[in-house]
Amino acid sequence: DEWHELAAMPRGSPLPAPLAALNAGSDVSPADIALSANLCTWGLPLLSIRGCLSVDTPPPLVFELLKSPERRAAWDVLLKEGRLVRQIGPDNAIVHEVFEPLSGDLGRPHDYALISSWRCESDGSYVIASRSIVVEEVPPSPQYQRGEVLPSGWWIQPQTDGTGSELTYVIQMRAELLGVGTDIASARKVAFSLMPSLLGLVRLLQCGAGAGAEGQEGLGSDLRQDLLTKMRTLFHRGSSETKKNEQVVEGATTGPFVSLLSGSRG
Q: What is the largest CA-CA distance in the chain?
């Protein structure tokens, strides 16, 4: 498996113009951010995107923010609704997440029924992983387009000086189900759709991860709508297929997930 670098944006470096427009008025990167893609994960037609970023927040606080589906709306521009359906012991939960579409004709929102699991490692790092499930508590609804989540999630590692965190986020998708190819151009397009949410996460953490349980303090409704409008415009710039629904699938499982995060097959 080979990872291809898509973008590297050190803290304080100029952001590409489209991303600067989505970064709350700032034209410089708020953190060290790097994006890469694997075009043939595990030797299968799976497109994987990996985002790595450094933040000044310690891992326990980052973990508490990222594991909550309700608080995700504070930083994820694309999340329309996230809710806890059922807690299964201390380390597992069934969650339901609904995401805004980026298709040219808007289409229906995409929703996902997920099993989410997390754990803390002996070195102080955390893993959060999710995958799609079929469960009676979250039946498919005609108002949503039900998506399938493949292995994805977060790896939160302590920095060597003990003050901040190194975050790795991986999403995997079946390209043929998404209307995109397993090529660099498709990978860049998918990665672009994730960047505003990663930037939103960094901004929230810089403010002390202070979102309440409802997760609404990070992004106001006016800012969210403005960002979505800009994302939809930029997402389809130069594309002649503006009526094709293109869905960003996210989520994770256990098993080979940790080795995928680290970039090795294991």
A: 50
Taking the model in full, what pTM does it have? Answer: 0.78
CA-to-CA distance for 1 and 150, rounded, in angstroms?
17
- CB neighbour list of residue 98: distance below 8 Å, 6 or more residues apart: 79, 80, 81, 82, 109, 110, 111, 112, 144
- 220 versus 29: the higher-pLDDT residue is 29
Q: How far apart are CA 184 and CA 257, in angstroms?
A: 22
How many Cβ atoms are within 10 Å of 172's Cβ, its own excluded?
Answer: 26
- State the pLDDT confidence band at 18, using cuts at 50, 70 and 90: low
Distance (Å, rounded) from C-alpha 114 to C-alpha 133?
6
Do residues 165 and 129 make contact, with C-beta atoms less than 8 angstroms apart? Answer: no
pLDDT digits (tens, 9 = 90+) for 178-233: 556 778 887 887 787 788 788 888 888 887 654 444 434 555 666 666 666 666 66
153 strand-pairing partners: 129, 170
Task: Report residue 192 as tokens.
Answer: 């672009």
**Of 41-50, 53-62, 146-155, minimum mean pLDDT range:** 41-50
Place of tokens 């190819």: 181
Q: Residue 64: name the closest of 173, 210, 175 by CA.
A: 210
With CA atoms as reference, report the closest residue to 249 among 75, 127, 99, 136: 99
Q: Output the six-digit token pair for 107.
A: 């289409």
Beta-strand relationship, 126-132 and 152-158: antiparallel
**What six digits make up the tokens of 112?**
């996902």
Helices (H) and strands (E) in the chain, counts: 6, 10
Instruction: Determine the 3-state secondary structure of 165 from DSSP.
Output: strand
